Automatic annotation (TrEMBL):
It comes from Natranaerovirga hydrolytica. Keywords: ATP-binding, Nucleotide-binding, Transport. This is ABC-2 type transport system ATP-binding protein. Pfam families: ABC_tran (PF00005). Residues 3-238 form the ABC transporter domain. The lineage of its organism: Bacteria, Bacillati, Bacillota, Clostridia, Lachnospirales. InterPro entries: AAA+_ATPase (IPR003593), ABC_transporter-like_ATP-bd (IPR003439), ABC_transporter_ATP-binding (IPR050763), P-loop_NTPase (IPR027417).
Amino acid sequence: MVIDIQNLSKIYTRKKKPPVVANDNLSLALEEGEILGLLGHNGAGKTTLVNQILGLTKPTNGDIMVMGESVMSDPKRARQLCSVQPQSQVPLSFLTPEQAVLTMGKMRGGKEKDIKNRMKNLFQSLDIEEWAKTEGEKLSGGIQRLTAFCMAIVNPGKIVILDEPTNDIDAVRRRYLWEEIRQLTQKGSSVILVTHNVLEAEKAVDRVAILHQGKLLAKGKPSEIKQTVNRQLRMEINLAMEPENINLPSWILSHHMDKERLTLSLEQSSVPIAIEWAQSNIVEGKINDYSLSPSSLEDVYVKLTGGRSIEEPNKLVSGGLSL
Ligand SMILES: Nc1ncnc2c1ncn2[C@@H]1O[C@H](COP(=O)(O)OP(=O)(O)OP(=O)(O)O)[C@@H](O)[C@H]1O
């Protein structure tokens, strides 16, 4: 076990305001060579957890063992063992990606020649070579984030923590990035991946932990977690008009909206009636098309977190289509 978190709580006290329970009695492990996805809405407590692992925030209760030693007793050691890509953009200013990545690799104690080779390979794999010598402030958000990713993994520690690494990144380079993350585990690192993107995480991680309002709602392999809804199906619908024009029938278990996409969950036994309902809405011009598929990790997430879509945490996703 690389990280062992036991009964961890963090309560922030605030002047003239009620305290915030950011982490509520969490017990969780990171196993050697795995990618653990940490999923949760804004404010779920993910950053607080990461900061405690790194010894930057002191737990209110509980402890975290990193490679067998308590972070509380040796916070610096945890930081030495972990390579981190923060959620916020790393301010590169006048530094080029080449300078920033090389500097970070050397700071982590690597030989210049090895770091340069690895950097070259990374820039090639992520297809960002053409910006290697461009000053940071002239780079797009996506290339800046990919540079921060390279800084974190050019000379990786035993533990790599990546906070929303795919934000702002195009679909093709996302794929390259996932390949690099997978290769990290093959070279002996274990990875914590903090993300909002459940669909992406489902494909890329070995296990997930779902955090909501400081509590750990579920942990395990995506396939195990999905078993809680494995007799359900999802119907994805492209709406042709505003959602308030659609009457939701009673066989729907839950639903959520994402732009013009309405997603419904339903029991297998409701499939015939659901198809009939969708077809009649097509005839009436209310929906463009629909598809039926097995439930995904996103459906479990929505169910566990009380019907709020992870992509749009402030939108109500049950009880009518008043969006
Ligand atoms: N220093 C602090 N003082 C008081 N409250 C805080 C502090 N840091 C975080 N919080 C609160 O703790 C809760 C968890 O915040 P945290 O940043 O850990 O969530 P998160 O899951 O990382 O969110 P996001 O995805 O938006 O980054 C939130 O309610 C937040 O407002």
